Amino acid sequence: MVMFKGTVKTLPPDKSISHRAAIIGALAKGTTEIQNYSKGLDNQTTLAVLNQLGVDVRQTQNANGNQVVIRSNGLWDLKAPINALNCNNSGSTIRMLSGVLAAQPFVSRLIGDESLMKRPMRRIADPLEQMGAKLKLSDSDTPPIEIHGKKPLTPISFYQKTPSAQVKSLIIFAGMHAEGTTEIIEPIETRNHTELMLGLIPERREDGSNRIIVNGPWQPEARPFTVPSDPSAACFITALGILSNNAEICLKNVCLNPNRALFLEVLREYGLKLPIENLREIGGEKVGDIVINQEQLAAPLRIFGSKKVAGLIDELPMLAALSAGATEQFELHDAKELRAKESDRIHAMVLNLRACGYECEEYEDGFTVKKQNSLPKTEVDITTYSDHRVAMSFAILDAATDIAVKLDDPNSIAVSFPNFFDIINSLKV
Length: 429
Known about the structure:
The protein is α/β, with parallel strands linked by helices. The protein has two domains: 15-213, UDP-n-acetylglucosamine1-carboxyvinyl-transferase, Chain; 228-427, UDP-n-acetylglucosamine1-carboxyvinyl-transferase, Chain (Alpha-beta prism). 31% of the residues lie in helices and 26% in strands. It has 13 helices and 22 strands. The protein has a four-stranded mixed β-sheet. A four-stranded mixed β-sheet has the order 3-4-2-13, with helices on one face. β5, α3 (91-101) and β6 form a beta-alpha-beta unit. The radius of gyration is 21 Å and the shape is globular.
């Protein structure tokens, strides 16, 4: 068994915060400096699209990592794009920027790669059309998205039935361009980076839901941002350490926002310690160092409930592979949203776990891993569907267990974690 040991200071910067820092920078008046901006393809896509919209974006490398400087004259400083805006594989880019483009007095057309062009977009179109913009989708409610913007937008009261931080954020961005008060009711809390970065304080209602108010038009002033390490990336290396049983790993400067680091709480419920060192706050976000010291998962993970699933949505593939690898079992329910990610992640995980010898049962909203019938004697071909999280989940199984795999698209990992394999190799003893 390979041992993994060391301190990781080079986890990728947080994807979610990087996207939002760039978009807020484009809307803010003045010069926005972003320290440690992500080099992942998704986040670079957001910068490229902003550049196409006439935003002054400059990127340099310094001692604190990748620095991005954005200069803008405010909310309506964007220019009509000459060509279609290519969002590549980034659902965050196409969804959140739609909220901005809905308020611009020009027509925009957003496209993406083969995967993104299959992803559902009706739930972003409906609220933006209620605010006065006109959006045209494909016959199957997928991209391309053609947006005929309206200046100013009309405020709305929006009840978010399906938990989505991206939909919430795009309505916040659109509401900043509206004449009046936009209200968002969120019965199940999702990641709150946008609110923290804009200084919005939700009102907790008697029924437990959050009420978020945006009084528009609202012109934010430029401010600096520092991006901590991505907790979703940390989850993969945490799983590596747990699966190898004898690891001694410290992950530095990880974002520990309660809505993002729920995987740590879940693993602690199953008996793991996973202590945090150097806990502090940066820009309203909790940040600290995760310690994995000879941890073992003894009981299979069983994950259900809409609130818990919403807080684990990006980590579920890795948690499934971790539980299967450590205990031969796993159970997931209430996760239908996984079918609308970069791939149908429920189907992708079941297909590939079966290829690894596991007996699985697939449901509309999840799946169960019952046992491992046999250990593959040869290398297993993994169908990633060009989904970075599926690819990384099985790469971790390969690195830390006796299952050998071959990814059909290892390059997909660069979307969120460009130095993924470098970190794994650096930890091998």
